[in-house]
TrEMBL record:
Involved in transport of proteins into the mitochondrion. GO terms for cellular component: SAM complex. This is Metaxin-2. It comes from Oreocharis arfaki. Residues 33-153 form the Mitochondrial outer membrane transport complex Sam37/metaxin N-terminal domain.
Amino acid sequence: SSLSTAAEPWPENAALYQQLKEEQILLSDNASSLAVQAFLQMCNLPVRVICRANAEYMSPSGKLPFIHVGNQVVSELGPIVQFVKAKGHSLSDGLDEVQKAEMKAYMELVNNMLLTAELYLQWCDDVTVEEITHPRYGSPYPWPLNRILSYQKQWEVRRKMKAIGWAGKTLEQVLEDVDQCCHALSQRLGTQPYFFNKQPTELDALVFGHLFTILTTQLITDELSEKVKNYSNLTAFCRRIEQQYFEGHEKDSSMIAARSSKRSLLR
C-alpha cells in the first residue's frame, strides 16, 4: 500500500533509463531525461543513469525516461514527481494554491510549446529528419529495421501533430512559438534565481531540461538555440543549475560530459 511505499527509504540502486547518449538519443528525449535528472538532483535523490538502445521498448508506457526504484517503474516527469512526493520528497510544498496553479500552467506551456516544437523539428522538418533523426533513431538496428522503426515513429508523431493542429505549420511559425514561450518564461523569471524565487521546483527542472538541451545540441542550423540565447536571464538560469546540480557530481550523472561539440554553456 502507499503507506509502506512512503516509509521505504530511497534505494541506493535507483536507476534512470534513457537511450544511448552519443549516437541515438534525440533532442526531445534528451530534454525530458535531463529534466527528470535535474528534478531528482534538486530533491537530493541519487540516481544512476543507464543508457540502453532499447530503452523505449523497456518502458511500460513506451515513454522515456523511466526510473526503476525498488520494484517500481515510473516514466516521465509528472508521474515521477508524484511518485517522489508519495515518498515524502517535494520541491513545491512551500507554494500556496495560486502559485501551484501558476507553476502547473507554466509547465503545460513548456510541454505544449517547447516539447512540441522539438518533436516538430525532429519529425516534420524534412532536412532534420533525413540528416539527424532517421540516422540516430534507427542507429541501434540493422537495415531495413532501422528505417521501418523510424518511419513508424515519424508516422505516429506526425499524426499527433495533425491532431493538435501543428501539421500545417511552417518552421518559421514553430520557431516563433518557441520565441513566445521563451519570452513568457523570461518575463516570469525576471531577476530571480528560480521561478518561485529562492528554491527550485519541478518547473525549474523542466525548463532547465529543455533549454539546456536546446542550447547544447548541434542541429542543422542554430535557429532553435538562437531563440533561447536572446534571453540572457534564461541562459544564466541554465548555467546556474548546471553548476549547482551537475558539475562536480560523479561522472555517471553528468550529462555534460562528452555531450556534443557545443557541450557547455560556460565557454
